[in-house]
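Re: the 189-residue chain
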Amino acid sequence: MNTMTIDGGTGGPVLLDAAELTRDPALGAHFAESAHGILAELVRAGAALGWVDPPSPAEVAELLDGVVRAALTGDAALRAAYVGHRLVGLGYWQRYARATHRPHADLEKLAVAAAAHGHGVGRALTAALIADARRAGIEVLTLDARGDNANALHLYRSLGFTEYGRLPDFVAVGARRYDKVFHMLDLRR
């Protein structure tokens, strides 16, 4: 039984952005390590996060360093969910690099620690990232998910994302094949 209590003083996790993470040296120093722990645990359990094998600590640190740099220049948004001093989830979007696609961004990663599943952390992170995208002038926020990730697909639909495409059996994990499902949220409306 999962007995984790989510409480950031407001009934939910405390959500920090990239600027807040970098302002606190102690927090920033442990962020990549904590994020690696969550990502590695989820990938080992078969989560659809883009890795077949758990990423290395160095790979996660490099990835997050790039996202933080992009967030500080307005080309990305990063959110970290904390319960007390414990990281329980993270997510980010990045603007598309092509000049003709700059008004748009891709929600590239959303990960919630297994112990925090079902407590609204993913919803809180996604809602905060959507709000960040609106403030940044993003017109369309896109994402893709593995077709068997029913909980994530339900979450995205409940927040207004609509499916705009599907590649059948596109994702290969060993001999298994999964659909790649594309969603979008039009923020111009």
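Residues 1-8 have pLDDT under 50 and may be disordered.
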